[in-house]
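Chapter review: from sequence to fold.
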Amino acid sequence: MEPLVGTVGQPRALDALEFGLAATTHGFNVFVAGMPGSGRLSTVLDYLQTLAADRPPPPDWVYVHDFADGDRPDAIALPAGRGVEFARAMDEFVEAARREIQRAFESEEYDRRQREILAEIAAEREREEQELTSFAAERMVALKTTLMGVASIPLVDGKPITREQFEQLPEAEREAIAKATSEVEERAAAFVRQVRRLEQEATRRVRELEREVALYAFEPLLRELRERFGEIEGVLSYLDAVRDDVLDHIGDFRGEPEPPPLPLPGVPPRPRDFSRYSVNVLVDNSATTGAPIVVERNPTYYNLLGRIEYRPAFGAMVTDFREVKAGALHRANGGFLVLEALDVLRHPFAWEALKRAVRTSEVRIESLGEEFSTVPLATLRPEPIPLDVKVVLIGSPFLYHLLFAFDEDLRELFKVKADFSPDLEWTREHERNYAAFVSRCVRDHGLRHFDASAVARVIEHGARLRESQRKLSARLLEVSDVVAEASFWAERAGHELVRAEDVELAIRKREFRSSLLEERIRELIAEGTIVIETEGERVGQVNGLAILDLGDYSFGRPSRVSARVSLGRGRVESIEREIELSGPIHSKGVLILSGYLQATYAQEWPLAVSATLTFEQSYDEVEGDSASSTELYALLSALSGLPLDQGIAVTGSVDQHGRVQAVGGVTRKIEGFYATCVVQGLTGRQGVIVPAANVRNLMLHEDVVEAVRAGRFHVWAVRTIDEGIELLTGRRAGRRRADGTFPPDSVHGLVAARLESYARRLQEVGSAPEAPEQAQEERR
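The token string follows.
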């Protein structure tokens, strides 16, 4: 048998997946609803792998430094695989640019041109200085250069004079000297301005020379980058910004160290930082074939949207664009993101962040600390990345309906529901699919192969898991566990192929490991601590059947249900209901009994009875209506005085017309009562009454089937209460005659007679019974 490819059955889910994953309209993401173990994730991944293989890989995404605003890194998309190439090329460019620029500035040509510029400026300054000196000499003023500038000193007979000497001169001579000095000072101020202009001109021309030399050195490197990546949108503008920044920071490339912010003795200057020219490859699809499929097992806020990390530096935490890290949405961009819905909801802020990203079709990396801080924080704000992803959420049907009811965004963003059925039709096709699934388990996990009988036993177990003779369980995880365990026991037994007996042993062992509580309850029943009678007859007492569900294991256990009646006011009370140990469905079943009694026996006489019903030795909450027929049998026995066979247990719900309806867990219930009868001794008369509608749900253990086949145990299927009461009492139920009465020796006849006598007694004492509605209102 070739291993299974894909999933078993699930045409509805596969149709929804095919549509939802192919639809390109916004909002048509997929919510896969199914129970755990039904193959939800494996089916989705198998389908996605087939679908993604035909699609081209999405582009790489990189973050680069924004030279205009360093806190807002720019995002650039490159063809798949070229992000790493671009990052490597930029690193090589920086190294080559440093080398070529240093070499250019060490050349004789640069020294010659720099000297020419400085010589021209020096000559111009010397000329201006000579003109100023001549101008001052003509006016008998000497010049002296000080820290404050150029000072003018008057001369008389070629010698400097002091202030005292100046004050002793005639007024006309003083005015002439003052005028000459003022003219010289004005000319000196103009000279200072001209010198500053010349210095600025020198600086400008040297800087232009440096830019020219540097550009000549690294422009070929940039030209090569433009040729390699020029067709990519965003790269050319980034390279232009890199060129301008390199020209603005030529000193970095010439090897000049960066002075420390606070010069300290013995502290060497730091090397220049070139990290701003690096490329942060956020998403690398170089190894991706087809569209990416990302399964995020831990969908926290940061794992979904990415994060900005920090690093310690000089006692502080700093960051830059290189610390921006990708999230699952980035890695899945252009492909598919698979998430467990419950995991997303468990993590704070993850669900809202996911919806926001899907709704806006962009991924924005933000820090939660900034959002909830009372003081604005200085941090990066990377450019959002456009999002094109198909999100597949996986969860239970209950979770889907809960979100659909309470979160309006679900119906807007996840418009496609892929509903996984819990079962499959038991057909020849699905038998072959089950066999192929076993084959896949064998190949995937290196197990022993199965023979035909073992595969047949696995299929039967699949039907037992679903409790149906017509359907197989779609929870293939449980089936695969049995396959693995059966292979283990086959190896232990030395079987080359796994046989049916190995599968049976694996099933029994699994049940044995989880059945401790069931075993303890059977011990209590065997020793009489829990009173269960499986022989004899009792009035007003019958064995009901309940299911105890422990999560990984469920089993049936019998419970005594008893009824007591007396003269009363038409009330049927459940003790569990009165003490609030009864769930609403069980309470509904008790009220249905009242409706049945009124319709059957209270057409001519009021229902003058007070009855109590209870589950003996039951101390937990009772829920469900599967015991309503059991309670009715006990009540009919108590009213008629006819004993019920204690070797017969009962399950099934009842409607107001006396029809017995299907219930759940009939297989476990029958097996639970059978085990109790085995403990106390089989008599050949014991058995279980089940609804006829549940016959197709019986998937009993082989020992129970064999006991039924041998006549040591029985299973009866009934459609009405009349059929069941006849089995329990051995007397005809009785059919209503034309005059509205029942045969007096029938069960219904005896019950009607008892109720009529109750009504007459109440009339004799002059106390009319209350209507059931009044009684209920009184209790409320």
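Two observations follow directly from the output. The longest strand covers residues 554-567. The two ends are 66 Å apart (CA to CA).
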